[in-house]
Design brief:
Length: about 270
Amino acid sequence: MAFAEEHDGIRVSEVKTLLADGSETASDDEAGAELADIGGLAGLRALIDLKTKSGVAAFVESAAALAAAVVSALESKGKRLQKTTLIPVLEPLARVAKRSLGNVLLLDAPGDVDVRKLPESELSAASHWYKVFQTLDHLGNRESWPEAKGLETWLRQDLLLLLDWATSRTKKPEWPLEAPVAPKSADAVMRGGLEALGGVVRVEAPSLDPADDNGAAVRDFQPPAFLVRPVSTGKADAEPSNVVSMLSTENPSGLRKPAWLKPKPAEVSAE
């Protein structure tokens, strides 16, 4: 307002310049206890910027210390990593890194939200940052560690890669972990098994619905070979077939009827 009175008005570009100068002054020049006395949105933004900068710096520092400890443990592990040796070193470092990350991710967390835990309402469990936080949470609790034989793989291929991703200065670092593969459904498993066995032969029969108007298709339909009644050609006796027709009730030559299918002789009455 003072600028407008002195210059008999004010332009939009001049307003933008003044606001930018005020923001930079509040963010950079004012620090410490003086920021707590600056009112308005400019003062609030300055406090948030200060907390964000200090919080990010604390997380980067704690993550670097944790990564260095893990690398040192992997280089001097010998034949196998020993949990009893790693627990007193990695567990407290992981807890510090997790708390620093929680302070940044939950910048405006209310008093009843524990930054040591991130509920689904605050941060989606499907997000990459939740994966980083969850990994630090597991490392900070020895009960969540994998078995000794899988500990090295977890530290090398999960933890170190996630810490590198979380502290990268690249604008959009590539996510280092592979996406989880969804389990196959029962139908997909069955289809895969059938395909491995050569697949299933399906016979598409024509529709018998008069509305379809495909009478010619019904007449021309050829049933599968195993459903066709064998036609006598005169050579059947010489070359007997081992295929039994499912549509014939006749007894093929060379095959005996079971006793229970033979007709019983009529009983002669004494009278």
